Amino acid sequence: MSSRKIDRSYEPDAGAVRVMGYARARAVLRSTDTVQAGLGVETVEKLPPSIRRPVLYRDGEEHREHRRQTARYFTPRRVDEHYRDLMERAADQQIETLRQQGTADLAKLSFRMAIEVVCAVIGLTESRPGLDRRLDRFFPEKFGKPGFTSLNGIYWVFKQNIQFLGIYLADVRPAVKVRRRQRRDDLISHLIDEGCRDGEILGECLTFAAAGMVTTREFVNVVAWHLFTDDALRDRYTGGDDTTRVALLHELLRLEPVVGNLKRRTTGPVEDIPDGRLVDIDVSTANLERVDEGPGLSFGDGPHKCPGAYVAVQEADIFLSKLFAQPRLTMLKPPRVTKKPDISSYELRDFMITVRPQG
């Protein structure tokens, strides 16, 4: 198996309890005596109590009930029956773009693929053209620091509000309008039935966009980078059956988790960690101890484990297996790697590939 390509060096928050062992990390993630921390939860907590928080930022019985009611959208059976054909079509469309152009940026192809799949699950099916560009602006390579104590902070707040409004008007509002007239079998319809307002639905959609579109793109990109640079690994993947390919994807995700650190705050004693402490879980390090099969803690664990894990792996396998079946597929240059230090994540951009004959 290939070694890591991403530098996972990371500076934890001052005063946080750092957890690096696999068993201890899993115990913290599974504990009911913790709540979500990091990922902007501090900002969300400042919202008025009347505004419902996205599920990512909720804990306890309310969170468990929401996950129970929405679990049906992410089961392996539903993914196979409802979304597999869509994944096949979306992958074929992006690979046809590569064939027609001859050369393309894999980061853009994989992002468009991820967007189409997640939009079907969420219900964002009435969007105006350009959702990929709107999301790229909303999740930029470099985030500013929000606040009103500096011009840069004020500009960041203003810019993000503009991006919020753009996605709401072009993507969320049209989908909600259609589903308020007639429900469909998707997440937005479920949220409407729960009495959510448009702004609350927007928050949920952006949460799922980050989890299902942005991270899946990086997962696809980093796997492709390994396959392009390791002939034996590439042969194992392209020559393997479904079980072999999925196992290889899990192993690469274990080595290269898209989110390398997760945070929780204890609400009671957990392991040897006292109540009220911020806990920084080093997924990248903990995964190296993993002895059972699977992606380790790369999808998290416990109450906040990523519900779309099967969707992401299925989507990645369909796209990558089709991509690497293309004759003369070549990487023109390795991707440009940038890091998001807050969550020990990475972004791979300018990942140029070609199916043109070389020379």
Give me the count of strands.
9
Overall average pLDDT: 88
Number of helices: 13
Low-confidence parts, pLDDT < 50 over ≥5 residues? 141-151
Query: What percent of the residues sit in helical stretches (DSSP H or I)?
Result: 40-55%
Molecular shape = globular
Can you characterise this structure?
This protein has 359 residues and is α+β, with helices and mostly antiparallel strands. Helix content is 52%, strand content 10%. It contains 13 helices and nine strands. Helix 4 (76-101) runs antiparallel to helix 5, helix 6 (131-138) runs antiparallel to helix 7 and helix 7 packs across helix 9 (198-229). It starts with 16 loop residues before the first strand and ends in a 5-residue tail after the last strand.
Q: What's this entry about, in short?
A:
Mean pLDDT is 88; it is low at 141-151. It is globular and about 60 Å long. It is built from 13 helices and nine strands.
Which terms summarize this structure?
359 residues; alpha+beta; four-stranded mixed β-sheet; three-stranded antiparallel β-sheet; 13 helices; 9 strands; 10% strand
Strand and helix layout:
Blueprint: E1 17-19, H1 22-30, E2 34-37, H2 41-44, H3 60-70, H4 76-101, E3 103-105, H5 106-122, H6 131-138, H7 151-181, H8 187-193, H9 198-229, H10 231-238, H11 242-255, E4 261-266, E5 278-282, H12 283-286, H13 309-323, E6 330-331, E7 336-340, E8 345-349, E9 352-354
Parallel strand pairs: 1-5
Antiparallel strand pairs: 2-4, 3-9, 4-5, 6-9, 7-8
Helix pairs in contact: 4-5, 4-13, 5-9, 6-7, 7-9, 9-10, 9-13, 11-13
